[in-house]
Amino acid sequence: MEVAAETVHVERATRASRIFAMLAAAALVALISLPWWGDAGDMRLIAEMAYYLALAQLWNLLAGYAGLVSVGQQAFVGLGGYMLFYLTGVWNVNVYLAVLIAGPFAGLVAIPVAFAVFRLRGAYFAIGTWVVSEVFALLASLIGSLGAGSGMSLTVPILLEISHQRDVRNTIIYLMTLAVSLFVTTVVYLLLRSRHGLALTAIRDSESASASLGVNTFGAKFIIYVATATCTGLIGALIFLQKLRISPEAGFSVNDWTVVVIFMVVIGGIGTIEGPFIGMLIFILLRELLADYGTYYLILLGLIAIAIMLKAPWGIWGWVIQRYNLQLFPVGRRLVVAPFEKTAKP
Amino acid sequence: MQWLNILIQGGLLGGFYALFAIGLSMSFGIMRLVNIAHGDFIVLAAYVGMVAIDATGFDPFMSLIVVIPAMFLFGYALQRGLLNFTLSGGLLPPLLVTFGISVIIENGLQQGFGAYDHRLKEGAIETASLHLPGGIDLGVYPLLVFAVAVLAIGSLQVMFYWTRLGRAFRAVSDDADTAELMGIDNRKLFAVALGIAMVFTGIAGVLFGIRTIFDPAAGPIRLILAFEAVIIGGLGSLWGTLLGGVVLGIAQAVGAALNPNWQILAGHLAFLFILILRPSGLFPRTRD
After folding, report:
1. What's B237's domain CATH number?
2. What is A5-343's CATH number?
3. Shortest Cα distance, chain B CAs vs residue A309, angstroms
4. What domain count does chain B have?
5. Is B115 touching A (CB cutoff 8 A)?
6. Which of A69, A71, A299 minimises the CB distance to B104?
7. Which residues pair with A152 in a beta bridge?
């Protein structure tokens, strides 16, 4: 008795993922139209959610898939932000062009950094990336044309370049942030669906096993590291376009741009594309609910992250997958065998 | 002569970094614990010292009577109740959990004591110095700190190589699973190890609070400096950690001599440079 070939097929999208795609499209339309029905505060909050989501997706790609537990992603946020302020403030470069340059610039810097930190493993890699970021922060605080320790502000003429009306300006920056977040999530999704994604997932599960099966682990990690830095730099430029001021402490803040992002990914579910969404929502929810109580939301976030790491190391989404076998972003491949009775030949 | 002075001052500064790093080096060497909260533990110890001083009127050195047992118990309980559960599954669990502890301590201190600067005052010894021929001034306090670092490492070495407990630590460090098969209770031993590590972290915290102002956010940079000393020296070697601290201190002193703003930067660059040339440090004892 053998099962006919056509009764077995590889399935990617599932019914849940198709329904989710429709809901996500609807939500996206609602978010894009927000400037016409929401106020500036809503836009600021959603934009913040958008860039935190993008940062979380990128850190997840690094640590959850490529096994690169970096504690130094703030280096690229700061580099991107500073590049925007430097190009527009010192060289009078058009602000949109400066945003576009900021990302590739961070990626370019990431190449020599990668050659240095890739010599390190595990904990040494984590601390090494952090020290690299501290070096950039210190350099920024020493360079006079970057405003040294006090940092830089975006001047009014640069803002007028975007638009003379504040509402229009806010809308443009909001839509840019939304677009970048969507772009980053899409890139991560497509990457994970591709052949490289398969290699990365293999590295995630066992680096030595995937290397012995012919995966170029160094190459895969290198590309991921540089691509992540590029996207992180782009996000950094947008973050500080919104904040209008940058300083070495704000630009290269390990807490703001890496630690809370790690918490989000771990709480939501590391190594999944859905996890960062959930983690980001929990972070923002906690912060908004506890806004009147100082920094207690960070203490609570830390406690939740610790509890999740110890009790459910694959996070909230990992628990959902285990329990309901649900996948909203179809990055995996499932082997579906048709039910036996219907296909069995006499 | 000027450069000799820089070397000496940098070396003495290195004693400070080595003292910061002892607790980290121990927990890294024995249980492979990447303790991101280490810098916050140093700051926490300084706050414990401050509270003890306020409550009893002790001077900072005397406050160690309170700080040392408090930190030992804290370390023991933390390892037993929490960190032991992070050690089985790779780098991420200990990293994330200690990041969580770091954020909790930092923000907890900020909520409890405000974001202000504090300092522990020990009096005349802080500024006293010995005048050597050739115009070299040796600060008494940095000398004292260096001596404490050497003494601390020396006593730990005696413990590691001459006592039953030390033998158990070395066995667990070499191969935790086999040590367990030989009848060692790893969980309890790890708790004692973090307790002892915290004793030295407590001493470092109080001595740090006397030397410079501290605030709730002072932890991460101490962590980085301590890590640099440990990694430059090489994993699992306490004398290596001392030397790592000295190398770091000298690099910083040379940087500061060139331009006062370059001190920390020069230390970081020296660290990265050494790490790229010798990824496992100068004197590695244990292989990861």
Report:
1. 1.10.3470
2. 1.10.3470
3. 6
4. 1
5. no
6. A299
7. A246
